[in-house]
Amino acid sequence: MLILINKNMKTIAKTINGLDQETIAGVVTALQSNPEIGNFELRAKNQWIYGSHTRSYVQGFYGACQEDTSRINPFVYDIDEPPILLGNNKGANPGEVLLHGLLGCMTTTMVILAAAKGIEIDSISSKVEGDIDIKGFLGLDASAPIGFKQIRVTFDIKASDEGQKEELFALAKQSPLFNSLINPTDVQLTLKK
Length: 193
Fold this sequence. Notes:
Layout: E1 2-5, E2 11-16, E3 19-20, H1 21-33, E4 45-50, E5 53-58, E6 62-63, E7 66-67, E8 75-79, H2 94-116, E9 121-132, H3 134-137, E10 148-159, H4 165-172, H5 176-182
Helix pairs in contact: 2-4
């Protein structure tokens, strides 16, 4: 925790886990007074390059009742497959990107919600493993599922109060990506004419 004190010895900012408490309180107050600002539309674009290599761009999104313009340049992600899956390792494969996103979302969720509750975290590390049978997506085995059969996430959490580890672990389960994976999500596909 970091507390900044001005020259008149008044507390002006308190941070927990790198997040400013006053800013968190401001966001909560704004959401309580206008729940509509909590609706976001996240976006990404993708372009096929060659073979199994694609490139994704993430830049704008809609949130807090407005278009976000804070990102001058897009984040660029190359996606490919390893040679054993007919690629050239130009980037992580799509399954690995999904697993990476899951870990990032669960960790970020835990940190933000812990800060809002005043819980200090010393460190978090995590790993994820996912089992997939490619025979399903290749159409070689009708009994093989298309997609992950199981995903296993392990967290190593160190907190100022070690007794809060279970509470922190539970906060990670509030992750939007975690919940998108464990609950049915309406995914709509459109073919441009």
